[in-house]
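Researcher: Let's run the pair from yesterday's discussion. Sequence first, then C-alpha cells, for each.
Model: Starting with the first of the pair.
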Amino acid sequence: MFCVAICDDDEILCAQLERFLEPYIEKESIKADVFYSGEKLYDALSHGQHYDLIFLDIQLPSMNGVALGNKIRTELENEKTHIVYISARQEYAMELFAVRPMNFLIKPITEKAVLENMEQAMRLSKMYDSFFEFKFGKEYFRIPYGDILYFESRNRKIQIHTKHGTKEAYGRISALEKKAPPNFVRIHHSYLVNRTYVTYWKSEEILLTGTISLPVSQAYRKSVGRFLLQGERE
C-alpha cells in the first residue's frame, strides 16, 4: 500500500489534507498518518516506519521542515521517500535542493495540487520497481532505475553510474532518454541524470549527491531549469 505522512503543526490544515485524500483512503489505495511535529515524524522514521510520500510544512517549531528533510536524506540515508514541502512563503524554494523535494506548494493549497502531487509520487515510486536491463559481452545486467545516478555517453558506449559503481552498455543516450522514467532529465548531449540525486543546480552546472559535478549545456538550460523547479520534462 502507498503510505503518506502529513506533517504540520496546523491541525486544520492536516484535517484538510486528510479530506483531500479521503477517496483514496476509503478505496484502500493509500494509508495516511498525521504528525503535528517534526520530532514525532522523525521518531517514526528512525524506528523503521516507511512513507512513500510526505507532505511537510517548512515552518514547524523546534525541528523545522528543512532540518527534518536533511535528516531524512543524510542520517536515515533515505532517497526513496518523496517530499512535498508546504509553506506560506516562497523564498525557501532554492535552498531546498539539498533535500531534493519532489515539489514545493504555497499556502493556501488546493485539492487539485495535493492529488496531482500524490499521483506523481505514486508514478515515480514505481521507478524503484522497474529496471534498466542490458547485456554487455556475455553478461546480463538488471539495475533498478532508482539506483542510477546518471547515464553518460562516451566513445559509443553508455556508462551507467549507480550508487554502487559504474557499468557499461552499448547504446545511444537519446534512446535511453525515451525509455527512462519521468524522474530522469537530459542536461547535455552526453548526460541523462536522475533528479532524485540533484543536490545543487545553477544554469551551467549540476551537482549529484553533493560531490559529482556535471555540465549543463546551453541547449538544455531552459528545460533543465523548468524541470528542476517545476517538475515538467519536455
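Model: Moving on to the second of the pair.
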Amino acid sequence: MPDPVQITPKNNYFLLGQEEAEKALLEAYNSNKLHNSWLISGVKGIGKATLAYRFARFLLDEKRRVFAPAATLATSPDSRSNLLISSNSHPDFKVIERDFIETDRKKVLKAIKDGSAMDEDELRNLKKSAFIRIDDVRGINEFFSRKSSDDGWRAVVIDSIDDMNSASANALLKILEEPPAKSILMLISHNIGQLLPTIRSRCTKLVLKPLADNTVASLLRRYRSDLDENTIKGLAKIAGGSIGKALNYADCGALERYGRLSDIIYAGDRFKLQDVLDWTEEATVSEESFDLAAELVLKFCSDHILESRNIEETARAWEEAVRILRQVNGLNMDKKQALINIIANLCKIM
C-alpha cells in the first residue's frame, strides 16, 4: 500500500471544526478595520496553521486588491495566487519557522542546486534547529519594506512563535510595534502561557478549541479512507480533539499500543511481566517511539483518573509519571526501567 499523502497547511484547503474562528476573521475583515497582528493559539493539530494559511490565501487573492465585504474565506486552489503560495514563490507571502541545522541545510541547498529530489528517508532524517533564528525574524522587516505586488496585502505566518528564543522574540516585538498598512502577521502558538506578555498584548487573540470526536472521525475518513470504522472511532477517542495527533497515531500504530497498555494496567496485580517487557522494549527502539510511549502513558492517566478507586492516588501517580519522564530527559536515565516503574505503579492503583 502506498504511503499516505502528507496533509500540510500549505496543501490543505479544507478546514473543519473551526467555523467560529473563521467567522471572527471574516467579520474583522468585513469591518474594514482588520488588526495587523493575530495570535492564533490552541493545542497542536487542531487547524491553527491551516486557518492561518486559509486567511492568508483569502487576503492575497486577486479579489482582495480592492476592499469589498466577503461571505467566505474560501478561495480556489487553482488561482494564480494560491499556486504561487503552494510553490513557496508568492512575493507577498512569507512563512517563518525553524530552519534545518547548518549541515542539513547545506544538503537541502545542494539538492536544489543539483536538481535532484531527496527521497523520503533523507527528508525524514533532516534535523531542524532548536529555535527560529533571529536573522529570519529580522527578515520580516525587509519583507514588509518592499512594495507589495499590485498594491495588495502582505502576509507573514510564524509557525510557531513558541520556537523563538528571547533574542528572536524581542526582535519580533519591534515589528509588532509599528506594522505597515495592508500587512498581517499571524503568530501560531501551542502554549500561549509561555509567551512574553508584551507580545500577547500587541496581538488580537484567537483561541481555537479542540475538535469534537465526531469531527476528528470525519476528518480521518477524509484523509485515511483505508481505515476501518472501529479504528477511526478508537483514534478519535484517544486523539484529544487533535486531527494532527490522530493522523500521526494512525501512521505509527498508536491505537494498538494504547490498547495493549490498557490491558496490562487493568490486569492489576495479575499483569504478565512478559507483556510489560514487550511493550517497553518496543517503546525504546527509537527516540520517536519513546516519546509516543510517554505520551500514551500520560494519556491513559488523564483519561482514566475518574475511573480509579482512588482519584487522589491516581492523580499522584500521574504527577509521579510526569516527574520520572522529566528525569529521563534531564538526567539520561534508563528509559525502559522508567516506563516499567510507571506502569507497575499504575497497575497497583487501577
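Researcher: Give me one sentence on the second I can quote.
Model: The first helix runs from residue 19 to 30.
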